[in-house]
């Protein structure tokens, strides 16, 4: 038995109660097809109209991660765990396991939305809980979840989440620009003759 299977068996059997399994299964469904992370992005764009384009980019990061995760699953074709006497505690849309789309989209969403200013601790708590729920339910090996988390983080980091805001000038009058020769202090972009 591999280390992956040993860890899965421990998580699949430790701390389980019928009520706990129902709660975790319901919680895990929040991230089916990245639903909760897409919903956060759409809500952010609706509420924060000034940065709607950046919210759209961050939401697209989650969707891109989901598509890439699906492509990797189809290429790798690792089967979901089959533990003797321990069937999975929830259903899944496919029989393919590597990497975990719950983990990849969750960690992509956590990083992308944190870059937009949402508080990182609750985002990462949600992402970690959703990722680990897949092992608890017997639907993924631990390595599936780890690979998914790394994939999602890499995609979000590469895409830059929602993009970076321009730095403000010291006097608060908009973005800064270097002087024409590239030397000396920064001045507000568009200032004529170096004066306000």
Fold and architecture overview:
- The chain has a two-stranded antiparallel ribbon.
- The chain is built from 7 helices and 2 strands; from the N terminus they run αααααααββ.
- Mean pLDDT is 86; it is low at 164-196.
- It folds into 2 domains: 3-159, Orthogonal Bundle (Vanadium-containing Chloroperoxidase, domain 2); 166-196, no CATH class.
- The chain starts with a helix and ends in an 8-residue tail after the last strand.
- α2 (18-28) crosses α6, α3 (35-47) runs parallel beside α5 and α4 (52-76) packs antiparallel against α7.
- With 196 residues, it is mostly helical.
Coarse structural class: mainly alpha
Percent helix: 55-70%
CATH topology description of the largest domain: Vanadium-containing Chloroperoxidase, domain 2
Indicate the low-confidence ranges by residue numbers: 164-196
The H/E string reads: HHHHHHHEE
Largest sheet, described in full?
2 strands, antiparallel
**Number of DSSP helices?**
7
CATH architecture of the largest domain: Orthogonal Bundle
Counted beta strands: 2
Q: Give the N-terminus to C-terminus distance in angstroms.
A: 71 Å
Order of neighbouring strands in the sheet with most strands: 1-2
Number of domains: 2
Q: How large is the share of residues in beta strands?
A: under 5%
Outline of the structure:
The protein is mainly alpha-helical. Helix content is about 55%, strand content about 0%.
């Amino acid at each position: 038995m591999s280390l992956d299977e040993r860890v899965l068996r421990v998580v699949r059997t430790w701390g389980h109660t019928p009520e706990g399994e129902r709660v975790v299964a319901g919680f895990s469904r929040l991230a089916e097809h990245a639903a909760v992370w897409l919903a956060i992005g759409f809500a952010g764009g609706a509420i924060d109209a000034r940065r709607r384009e950046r919210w759209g980019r961050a939401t697209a990061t989650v969707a891109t991660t989901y598509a890439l995760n699906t492509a990797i699953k189809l290429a790798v074709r690792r089967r979901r765990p089959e533990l003797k006497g321990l069937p999975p505690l929830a259903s899944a849309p496919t029989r393919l396991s590597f990497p975990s789309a719950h983990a990849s989209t969750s960690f992509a969403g956590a990083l992308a939305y944190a870059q937009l200013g949402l508080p990182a601790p609750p985002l990462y708590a949600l992402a970690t809980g959703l990722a680990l729920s897949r092992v608890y339910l017997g639907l993924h090996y631990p390595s599936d979840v780890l690979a998914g988390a790394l994939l999602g983080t890499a995609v979000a980091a590469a895409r830059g989440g929602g993009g970076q805001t321009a730095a403000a000038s010291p006097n608060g009058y908009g973005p800064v620009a270097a002087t024409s020769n590239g030397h000396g202090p920064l001045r507000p972009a568009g200032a004529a003759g170096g004066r306000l």
